């Protein structure tokens, strides 16, 4: 949340760290502690209430210096962080609630192995740029290599989970999910790149030497999390 707030400030949105972190915590809290109420009207009310609370806090904080300038930007920024750094990663908590830890590890492995496969394939044989105006380093060859890697990881992981007595998709289904998770992870990475390029920053932070910021490491799983939860929901129980 701090890093997203930093990106937004670079764009000129006067969002402070405190309401940004509060918005993220509110979203994560809904997903983490409100899971038992996430069905029906109760779940809808809980989620909407957290969003309204985050939005209200952002507005109140934006006028603490008795000025109206930037209020609209702060209100939008708080909701962005509430969803992007709160609700979306919170779906990983729900995956863990419904499945053994190894299922969550499998999902994350598919995503990150796609990143690794795309990097090595792209640097080795990459020639055709994927989206040069957004991410000049990504190539179509790298994307193909990443998806193949995540598909293999999905198939192997599904086989291992089933062999260990853990509810999992078939090997073919695991391969399909691996490709799905890996592909969405690439979209998540590009989405973060879109925000950073719009703000004119290269990395989201400097807390992880060699990687940039925490957002640079988690941008792909964040987008995958909601899809992974619903894709695996039928296996629960």
Q: Total helix count?
A: 8
The mean pLDDT is 88
The largest sheet, given as strand count, sense and whether it forms a barrel, is: 2 strands, antiparallel
Describe the global form. Answer: flat
Structural class: mainly alpha
Q: Tell me the total number of β-strands.
A: 2
**N-to-C order of helices and strands:** HHHHHEEHHH
Strand adjacency order, main sheet: 1-2
User: What is the distance, rounded to the nearest whole angstrom, between the alpha carbons of the first and last residues?
Assistant: 33 Å
Number of domains: 2
Write the layout of secondary structure elements.
Elements: H1 2-10, H2 17-33, H3 40-62, H4 71-98, H5 101-125, E1 129-131, E2 135-139, H6 140-163, H7 171-199, H8 214-233
Antiparallel strand pairs: 1-2
Helix pairs in contact: 1-2, 2-3, 2-4, 3-4, 4-8, 5-6, 5-7, 5-8, 6-7, 7-8
Molecular structure report:
The protein is mainly alpha-helical and 237 residues long. The chain folds into two domains: 96 residues, no CATH class; 138 residues, no CATH class. It has eight helices and two strands. It has a two-stranded antiparallel ribbon. The two termini are 33 Å apart.
